[in-house]
Amino acid sequence: AKDKGRSNTQIYNGRLSKMMSRKFVIEQGLRKAVDKREFSLLYQPIVHVQTKKIVGFEALIRWNYPVLGELLPLEFIPAAEETGEIISIGEWVLRQAIADCKSWQRGRSPIYVTVNISARQVEQPELIQRINGILAEKGLAQEYLKLEITEGAAMTNIDRLLPQFRKLQDAGVDIALDDFGTGYSSLNYLKIFPIKTLKIDRSFVKDIHKDPKQEAIIKTMAALAENLQLDLIAEGVEQEQQIAFLKEIGCYKMQGYYFQKPVPADEVRMLLRDN
Ligand code: C2E
Ligand code: CA
Ligand code: CA
Ligand code: CA
């Protein structure tokens, strides 16, 4: 038993140092990743199920890091937030997403792009100027760009973020509260927070038709959105029966694998061909 204990500890330490070095390797790589053009964006359509048309695309970052391979944002965005690298990465995302979105508008109904932003970006005093500068440079109007911030990030930093969000709203850039339902919003904050859209977190959509309580909670979110006159988007929609339920409660904008997995920019153009 004693031997076993020792070898477990060794395995544990081995894993731990491996994990620490992975984190270290990620932090190192992040510093040069923008310059080395290692990031790319995938786009996932947001679909209006009544008209069956795509209304916009969410930009989702990927990192093709030669040292570790293709990395998902959950593995490097928190590290980038910690080191501050998120500022330059976030700016790269905005430039790329705005340029791509501009290229999608070709005499058809407007298609917007929605970009995820971290609290640290929003706290930058010059964010609004930067965004306006990029929009002007690429020739895209403000209403084509929307920003998403997670409910958790928004509510923890509300005092510092609120004035910035007011300025963004005044500049004509809409804000969506992402992962809604996971971040403990006070209803009072929802009232003063200048948002246009609530995005129902995937975890709620997942258990539709399995859990009546979950259905009751989503229903309440939909009622809340309606009463506050907010747009509502359900994320993580994978099944037909989820769509049926969401329609029933008045949620018509959806995103999820049922419709489309996130795709590279050149496939966006194909998706828009008969939109
Ligand atoms: P999110 O904003 O909630 O984005 C939705 C995530 O769910 C994406 O994961 C997407 O690929 C995935 N997804 C979409 N539809 C389905 C579905 O039907 N089923 C399932 N199981 N998953 C689905 P992804 O791309 O790994 O992004 C993870 C998170 O990373 C995002 O969550 C967002 O918070 C963050 N993120 C992504 N891009 C950026 C970025 O450019 N900047 C910042 N700050 N955060 C980003
Ligand atoms: Ca999002
Ligand atoms: Ca989300
Ligand atoms: Ca999420």
Automatic annotation (TrEMBL):
Signal sequence interval, chain numbering: none
Start and end residues of each EAL domain: 23-275
Coiled-coil stretches: none
Protein name: PAS domain S-box-containing protein/diguanylate cyclase (GGDEF) domain-containing protein
Location of this fragment in the whole protein: 415 to 689 of 689
